[in-house]
């Protein structure tokens, strides 16, 4: 069979589906504007390309040639790399910018409305005393029992609420489950304790890295004086009395404990005590549940630093608001040092904060096996003020707690700062 001769009339259109290459590709503006124009050639399956400067398609054409599809595709790629954009792309961009700004504006309006609704709801119950944490007014506990008072943590006046505190404080007010993740000593547990201290809520803590069993957590039967008694575990105790429960190192919890927890994580979630004839424990309105973890979620990359940590699955994590706690910044940590130990000078405090930051960086690089917590830093600084000797103070506060290799590296970091941070005007070196 003889193929029909190609003419522009019977040339089948090229298979360039939605994305026709025809059109003008431009870069630059005004006098610097440069363009390529692509159109179908009169020759079948070929494209005409023209090049010029100035207004699209107008003005002097300095290149005018015909290429096949392969050649054209190579040119399209090259133009894209050189910053040429098609009119269709320009339109898409403009539309995206418009949609984007409309979305952002809508969101701002919606968030404002939500804020007003929240404030209105709160002023209805304004009979309740509140205390300000960061920028949030948090209700103070109405439980005046001795049992609660005995469990309220002591206020640490040196505790610094960083900007991250606001969102978490609101979550607590709204009775959300809050999980704090971050390296050891980054202030996860003390955050919850210090909020509880200021709002007068009793706190119970349980650590999953150890021998915590489902029995400890949920409760167990025991025999006392010939009688069989049920002893509530820490979870039902907190739920009934309305205490705040901190579950530390959740990523070490055994699966049976996570299974029990999951039910309680739902808003208003009840606990079913199967062992006690299916008794249902309804949470007291003041009950709050917090988890802390070193290596869950966004911290999973550090699991090798926390031997034995389990990966918490996404379905479990989705039942929490999860906040990533970083160590305090150098300035924040220096501030905490000065608040805790007013005898320190700002220059000393900044140098100590810089030493801690260097040790943490070494820990993250796995050059150090031991983490450097704010607690350790505070303890070392306190001892330093007593001995007047940083090295001497470092022995019981740091060196004796870590391996010989770690001690050697920390010692070299300390010496480096002790020598190079001492600026003549007494200000910390940059
Ligand atoms: N924002 C902060 N302000 C003051 N001290 C802090 C702060 N964050 C941490 N610390 C200190 O660090 C110590 C260790 O914090 P902690 O809450 O136990 O850490 P984590 O639970 O993350 O291991 C606390 O006892 C406290 O002295
Ligand atoms: Mg902790």
Structural summary, described in words:
The chain has 430 residues and is α/β, with parallel strands linked by helices. The protein has three domains: 23-83; 138-325, P-loop containing nucleotide triphosphate hydrolases (Rossmann fold), CATH 3.40.50; 330-420. The chain is 41% helix and 19% strand. It contains 14 helices and 16 strands. The strands form five sheets. A five-stranded antiparallel beta sheet has the order 4-3-2-1-5. The protein has a five-stranded parallel beta sheet with strand order 9-12-15-8-16, sandwiched between helices. Strand 6 (130-133) and strand 7 (136-139) form a beta hairpin. Helix 10 (330-340) crosses helix 11 (346-364) and helix 11 (346-364) runs antiparallel to helix 14 (404-420). The protein starts with 22 loop residues before the first strand and ends in a 10-residue tail after the last helix. Residues 1-17 have low confidence and may be disordered. The structure holds adenosine-5'-diphosphate and magnesium ion (MG). Magnesium ion is lined by residues 188-189, 248, 292. Magnesium ion (MG) binds next to helix 5. It comes from Paraburkholderia tropica. This is Cobaltochelatase CobS. Residues 1-22 are annotated as: Disordered.
């Amino acid at each position: 069979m003889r193929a029909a001769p190609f003419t522009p009339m019977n040339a089948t259109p090229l298979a360039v589906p939605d994305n026709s290459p025809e059109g003008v590709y431009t870069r630059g503006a005004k006098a610097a504007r440069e363009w390529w124009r692509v159109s179908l050639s009169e020759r079948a399956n070929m494209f005409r390309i023209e090049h010029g400067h100035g207004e699209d398609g107008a003005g002097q054409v300095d290149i005018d040639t015909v290429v096949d599809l392969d050649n054209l595709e190579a040119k399209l790629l090259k133009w894209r790399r050189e910053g040429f954009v098609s009119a269709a792309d320009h339109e898409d961009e403009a539309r995206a910018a418009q949609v984007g700004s409309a979305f952002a504006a809508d969101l701002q309006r919606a968030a404002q409305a939500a804020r007003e609704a929240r404030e209105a709801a709160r002023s209805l119950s304004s009979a309740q005393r509140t205390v300000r944490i960061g920028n949030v007014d948090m209700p103070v506990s109405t439980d005046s029992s001795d049992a609660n008072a005995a469990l309220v943590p002591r206020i640490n006046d040196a505790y610094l609420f960083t900007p991250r505190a606001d969102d978490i404080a609101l979550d607590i007010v709204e009775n959300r489950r809050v999980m704090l993740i971050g390296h050891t000593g980054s202030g996860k547990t003390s955050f919850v304790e210090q909020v509880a201290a200021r709002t007068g809520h009793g706190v119970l803590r349980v650590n999953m890295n150890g021998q915590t069993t489902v029995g400890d957590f949920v409760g167990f039967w025991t025999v006392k004086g010939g009688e069989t008694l049920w002893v509530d575990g820490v979870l039902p105790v907190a739920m009934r009395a309305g205490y705040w429960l901190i579950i530390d190192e959740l990523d070490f919890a055994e699966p049976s404990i996570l299974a029990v927890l999951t039910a309680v994580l739902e808003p208003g979630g009840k606990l079913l005590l199967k062992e006690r004839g299916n008794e249902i424990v309804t949470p007291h309105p003041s009950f709050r549940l917090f988890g802390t973890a070193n290596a869950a979620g966004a911290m999973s990359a550090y699991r090798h630093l926390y031997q034995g940590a389990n990966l918490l699955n996404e379905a479990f994590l989705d039942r929490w608001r999860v906040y990533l706690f970083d160590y305090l910044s150098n300035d924040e940590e220096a501030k905490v040092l000065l608040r805790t130990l007013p005898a320190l000078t700002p220059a000393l405090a900044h140098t100590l904060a810089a030493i801690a930051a260097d040790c943490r960086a070494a820990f993250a690089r796995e050059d150090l096996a031991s983490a450097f917590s704010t607690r350790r830093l505070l303890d070392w600084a306190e001892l330093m003020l007593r001995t007047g000797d940083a090295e001497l103070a470092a022995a019981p506060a740091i060196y004796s707690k870590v391996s010989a290799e770690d001690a050697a590296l920390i010692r070299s970091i300390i010496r480096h700062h002790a020598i190079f941070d001492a600026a003549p005007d007494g200000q910390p070196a940059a």
